[in-house]
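User: quick one, fold this
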Amino acid sequence: MIWENDYARLALLELLSRGSLKRRRTQCEAYDALAELSWTRATGRRDEIGVVEERRTELAGLIDRVWPAWRDVLADLVAAGLPPTPDGYGRLLDMERAASLPDLPDRINRRTAASLIAPNSKASITETRRSALGGTDTSHDGAIRLRPPAGLWARTANGALNLSEIATVLGEVSIPERALLDGLAFEGAIRAVLLVENLGAWRDLSPPPGWLLAHVPGWDTATVGHFLDRVDDVPVVHFGDLDPNGVRIMLHLRKRSPNLKWFLPEFWFELVDVCGLPTRWPEDLDLDFAPAPVRALAARGLWLEQERIVLDPRMADALEAVLADEPPA
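Assistant:
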C-alpha cells in the first residue's frame, strides 16, 4: 500500500497542513496519486497541487487511517521549527536520536555511530549528525597487513612489540587502525615502504633488506593514510597492476602522499607482447603524469598484471633503483 511509506504519508501531512504539495522525487508516487483525486487541484505553479477546501475532511480522514500519530508528529515539527517535508522529518528524527544517545566512549566505529545518530548503520554521517557525537571520534576500523623488516618494533602507550619476531612466527603482522590513531610509532630502521596492490604479489615478493611491505587493496585507503602518517620520513613506493584501475589507485595514493614513487621496472614492459592482456583504457583517464611506456601500453589497449614479475630475480635490483631516482614533481 502506497501510504505505508513515510515519504507518502508526509505528502499527506504537507498537503493537509500547508494546503499545497510540491512534487519531489522521493514522493512522486504519492503526488501522482493525490493529483488524480477530486480532493486536490492545480495551483498554477509547476509541479504543485493544492487541497480543495471543501474536501479537506476526506483528506483528514485518510491521514487518520494511515498515520494515526500525525498530529503528534506535526506538533513536534512545529515546535522544532521544521517543515512537514522529508527533509524536515529526517532532521526531526535526527534530533530525537541525538537526544536519546547513551554515554559514548572516546571513539566508536562509524557504523556503530551511524546506527545511533542516523536511520541505520549504513547511512551517511552528515556534519549535523556528527555534532551529536560531541567529542567522540569515529573510525573505519580497518587493518593493514605488513611484512616488516628485521628489527622493526611497534610502540604504543601500552607497550612495545617486536614486529619482525611476530612475522617470523606468523609470516606477517596486522596493525589495526585504532592503534595508528592512538599514536603507534615504528622503531627501527626502515629503508623504504612498498605498497603492493594484490595479495599474492604482496605475499610472494622477496624484498630487499630493510624494506617494509604493506598490502594496499583497492580503494579502501583510510587505514593506509594513517599508516603513511607513521612513515612520513621514509621513501614510499607503489607497486600495482598496470591497468586503468591501477593508475587510478596510484593517482589516489599520490594525493595522500605527493612524493610517492611508482615501481615501473623496464623489464616488465619487455613482456608486453607475450603477457599483455586486452582491456579498454578510458579516454578521460589522466595519463599525463605517466611515463611513455605506460601511455604506449594504454594506446595498444593492453594491461600487465603485477603477479607475473613478482618472482623475477631482477626485482630486488629494480626496487633499489627506484630509491636512486628523484621524487616526482
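User: anything notable?
Assistant: The first strand starts at residue 20 and ends at 22.
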